[in-house]
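Slide 14.
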Amino acid sequence: MERFLHEIAKEKIVRFTAQELYSFTNNYSTRLGSGGFGVVYEGQFPNGIRIAVKVLNRNSNNKKVEEQFMAEVGSIGKTHHINLVRLYGFCFDNLMSALVYEYMENNSLDKFLFSTKTPQIEVEQLQEIALGTAKGLAYLHEECQHRIIHYDIKPGNVLLDSNFSPKVADFGLAKLCDRDITHVSCSGYRGTPGYSAPEFLMPGYPVTHKCDVYSFGMLLFEIATRRRNTNTNMDTDDTLDWFPKKAWEEFEKDGLKNLITMEITGIEEKDKEKVHRMFMVALWCVQDSPGSRPSMSTVVKMLEGGVEILPPPNPFRYLYGLGNENVAGDTTVLGSYSTSAGTNSSWYEKTTPVMRKYEIQIASS
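Slide 15: predicted structure.
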């Protein structure tokens, strides 16, 4: 940790003291949110700039806290992009681990997609949010000195400033790797059920930056529809209400025309092409084979309309009784991965977000 802090000292972020954070947050009087990582508080620098202070929870596993701390500081501390949340500094001592970020006035995207208490965002602005998020990920994957894999792209980790410009946040699972390394090792499950790429649930299967592309595709479906992909009611069969599968079936029928009319209420004629484009990009991003997913820079061009979007192949063939012997022989379906669990697709159906039996613990470290 001391070597890590010495390297970070060479960057432009600031190491604050616990007393300074106490002062900036007025004794942590305004709580913005919380999670498994800890609690986020609102604060303000002496010059009036508003900040968000994430105080990491040290009560359970100090090693995990250190790992998350180094993941966030080590990745976002080295990046500067308009679509990435800015890290001003950190605090690390025997009693406290904290991260100091820029304050985002409109909080996270999920509140505007799923809450009935917030104003609805127009389609054109939703497209700009999707595009900005894609640009932030493209920067992480392709423009940084070291490629950064985020691992947890979802609406809750896309923050919105006062102008609703998006910034990717929460790099607690992020990993840095050399860009010429095609695969990275990954122990245990990463990400959030419903957004994580299927390769995370297959022991020994190589993980690449394309896992972020898959997660972005799932996010894009939700941006386009302003609804969650899966019914969170555990008493229902998720296979009947998983929107990405429905989108593919509608694409096969009539190229999504009927879907856009049914799913997007109040959409104006001028916005239908934008929604159609987002659906098409999403279908490419969630391909089951990582190699079939586009790069994030290509995703940016697709969303901007700079390239033609060809008809995608079926990303959900595993849901139609595909056997492992076919998986092993078809490199477009999760590469050449095969299992010894039998010759049917139950090994995958039980661990995909389309199934209500999605169990994160089966792949936990």
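Speaker note: Residues 123-142 form the longest helix (20 residues).
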